[in-house]
Structure formats: structure tokens, C-alpha cells
Amino acid sequence: MFGFWKTWKALEARGIMGINRRNADYVLKYNKRSLYPIVDDKIITKERAIKAGIHVPEMYGVISTEKEIEKLDEIIGGRSDFVIKPAQGAGGDGILVIADRFEDRFRTVSGKIISHEEIEHQISSILTGLYSLGGHRDRALIEYRVTPDQIFKSISYEGVPDIRIIVLMGYPVMAMLRLPTRQSGGKANLHQGAIGVGVDLATGLTLRGTWLNNIISKHPDTTNAVDGVQLPNWDGFMKLAAGCYELCGLGYIGVDMVLDQDQGPLILELNARPGLNIQIANDCGLTLRTHAVEAHLEELATKGIQETVEERVRFAQELFGHIHQSE
Q1: Which residues neighbour 20 within 8 Å (Cβ) at sequence distance 6 or greater?
Q2: Is residue 38 pLDDT above 80, yes or no?
Q3: Measured on CA atoms in the order 19, 25, 30, 33, is the torsion positive or negative?
Q4: What's the pTM value of the predicted model, to 2 decimals?
Q5: Could you count the other beta carbons within 10 Å of the beta carbon of residue 101?
Q6: Element (H, E) at 5
Q7: What pLDDT score was predicted for residue 326?
Q8: From 33, 77, 180, 322, which residue has the greatest number of CB atoms within 10 Å?
Q9: Would you say the CATH fold of 58-143 matches that of 15-39+149-325?
Q10: Which CATH fold would you assign to the domain 58-143?
Q11: CATH architecture classification, 15-39+149-325
Q12: Helix-, strand-, coil-residue percentages of the chain, each rounded to 5
């Protein structure tokens, strides 16, 4: 018991944030419960983002009842690829990614051939709340399938890599690239076996990776190095993430974004309870960074100053960028 306590105190000294601290000091403190539906429902998030002029994957349609499943053909039209996901799903569960058509059937991103009836059954399962937070009845969202930028071809398996940036009161504090693997079934969810790779906030350069809670340097499927990759349009990602504070009003969020080869940076979803594995990928604790932001906010408050999105991004990059920390 003493050994565990000693280890935990050492982690605390490095600023490692545990789930209790995250919940008590950040989620409960900065996230009003009344605003949760904005981020817990992907359709509401998307509608607000579109209204604010923020780029998101195009929404083809929404199915809310069993009767509306009849509208599926009308919603997908002649499209050969699309994504179906639960509006209130979590952890990537329940998402169906269609990559192509095969005669009168459909081919998923993993190559599996499924029928129209199987897709309808998946939508029906979504509506019952099988994948929703708390098991409540849900809606099915049909949207544009993101085509990953070619830069990810050598370090990702099948699916769409995404970028998560944790944001405190509009200030980005830590970033991670999540890479699908064969183990994760092509999904960018760490608990299903995706890789988390730290990202330098100042430059957008990838750092080391974590896979199944182990430190790695190469992708297990492509065997290519996951570190040292320059993510394009990094400042654009940082500004998108910082601006999500105004979009949803929640003070502590994880912003999940993708880089589409045709449409550039797009926001996928927001998370009011972002996970903590991002610290392993960055070899750095969240607490030291969040405390620095809170101290900065207190200083600004005494002067009556509110910073713009650009100023918040600049502050984060200057203070938290690895190139600056190593100088």
C-alpha cells in the first residue's frame, strides 16, 4: 500500500491528472450540466457548428423513428459511401462506415459485404438506445464519409485518424493524434486498440505513441514510425479547437477533428469528459498545464481582459509547445 501511495505521489508531482481530479476540478467545475446535450448529441453539435460557420462533415439525414427507416434510400440517394452513427453514442460503438456498393449490397470500410436489411437492423438497434449514453432512445445520423489526408497513409490502418485537443476555457492544453489499427477494427478509439500519438502544440509535429497502454515508436500494422510526422494546417486545428469554447459554452472539453483530403480540417464531435490517456502519449501531465491556464485567467481577470481565439492559441503554443519546453 505504501508503495502505491509513493508511486501516486510521484505521478502527482509530475502533474499527472487522475479521473477523480478531472471530474471534481474540471468537469464539474467548468461544465454546466444544462449544456451537456450540446456535446452529448452529435446532431445538436453539428447543427450549432454549421450555424457558427464551423466546418463539419456534411449531414445527409437523420432517422428518429422505426417508421423513418423507410427514408434510408432517399437519404443516401445514389451515394456509394457514407457513415451511420448514433447521435448519442460514445467510444465509437454503433458506428457503421460504408465505403462502397457491391451490386445490390454494401461494402464496409473493412471489406465486409452487408445487405440493405443489415443496415436497417443496425439503425433499428441505434434507435433503441443500444449504443447511447445511459441506454436512452436515440437517433441515427447519416453523414459524409471522411477521406483521410494522404499524409496518414503510412501510419494508419483502414479507418480515419482523428486529432483530439483538450481545451480549458478556450485554451488548448494538450493534443493527440489517434490512429486506427487492425486491432481497433479501423476505428480511432484507444479502448478498442487504436494508437494515441502525442502532438507538439507549437508545431503540430507528432511525438511518441501509446498502444494498449504501452509506449511504441512504430505502427503495429504498417511498421512505419509514428513520431516526427508534420500534421498539415496545424494552426487551423488549434483555432478550430479553441473556438469550440464559444460554440458550446463548456469550459473543459475534448475536441475531436479530422483532416479530409478534399475539405481540410473538420470537427467530428465534442466530449465533455475527455479521457486521460493523452498524458501517456505526450509523456506529460495535464494538471501543470491546466493550472497554468487558470493562473493566466486570474491575471487577465484582474486587468479586465478577455483574449481572442488567436491570442489563446498563441499563449498555449508558447507555453506548452515542446520546442519551447526544451529550450
Answers
A1: none
A2: yes
A3: positive
A4: 0.90
A5: 15
A6: helix 2-13
A7: 44
A8: 180
A9: no
A10: Dna Ligase; domain 1 (3.30.1490)
A11: 2-Layer Sandwich (3.30)
A12: 40, 25, 35
